[in-house]
Amino acid sequence: FLNLGLEAEYINRNIFGAAQVFNPFGNIAITDVNSFFSGDNFVLRDQFERQLGIKFAQPLLWTIDNARVSFGFNPLYSFRKYNRIKFETYSFPFKFPIRLDKRTYFDTWIVDWSFDRQQPLDLKKDLDKILFDPAATRQDSLRVMAAIEDYQRLDDYLKDPNKTHLLTSNIFGITLTADKRDNIFTPSKGEYTSINLNTTLSFFGDSPISGLANYSRGLFTHYDFYSIGKQSVFAWKIKAGAIWFWDKDNKYVPIARQF
∠247-238-251 over CA atoms, to 5°? Predict the structure, then answer.
């Protein structure tokens, strides 16, 4: 795909006098330019996305022994199409990166907690268009059919006339990272390992912020780099993940956390 986009941002790296970073931004993107300008109405706007958000970072919140704890808050609004269904997402993630002694293998930990509201727009209209449009490919139709039940459950959850639901997920996670590469952009030797675990939380009960999502997810990533000459590098990587659903009838997973 050929991508095309435009982004505007403002960055202040010392907004409160203690090296805090304040970075509001906005962007708009077409992720498949060829399809967008093809003149085919079936795919004309399928790859269109826009985002508006703020990145705030406090580089040093506190220290615990030799560990340095920082803080990040990145509220984000986005509009995108996924499986040809239009979605709006409001995300409020809180992150606490923890830097440990470099002699520790997993020298960076991130503890995060994200509150999200993801809502389909014009779901019935989009489904009718996909299922009855003769231009739809079999792959398009099968992919959407497999997810229709989850999309419909999400739509019904948000439109429940008897209860107010402000969020569709609240997810707690922890990420352990070991980065031993000699250069993060163009490594010639070293290794990188990441283990990410996140799960939905149930202690909010059936409150407006409890969310529909009910699962746990794990992701393992590892890269290795070996220098085999002055200008040659051999590398390999592996990535493996799994999702465990705690309710067999509820397979909803936020788009950004799907594999």
Answer: 15
State both tokens at 120: 């389909």
Tokens of 103: 């002699």
Rounded to whole angstroms, what are the CA distances from 24 to 11, 57, 117? 7, 12, 20
On whether the CB atoms of residues 108 and 98 are closer than 8 A, the answer is yes
Task: Name residues whose C-beta falls within 8 Å of residue 108's C-beta, 6 or more positions apart in sequence.
Answer: 97, 98, 99, 100, 176, 177, 178, 179
* Contact criterion met (CB below 8 Å) for 154 and 212: yes
Alpha helices in 4-160 (DSSP H): 33-36, 123-132, 138-158
Q: What sign for the dihedral angle of Cα 202, 206, 208, 212?
A: positive
Per residue in 14-69, pLDDT tens?
999 989 999 999 999 876 656 555 555 444 455 678 999 999 999 999 998 889 99
The tens digit of pLDDT for each residue in 126-183 reads 777 776 666 566 676 676 676 777 888 899 999 999 889 999 999 999 999 999 999 9
Q: What is the pTM of this model?
A: 0.83
Is the CB of residue 33 less than 8 Å from the CB of residue 3? yes
What is the distance of C-alpha 90 from the center of its chain? Answer: 12
Question: Quick check: 203 and 159 in contact, CB under 8 A?
Answer: no
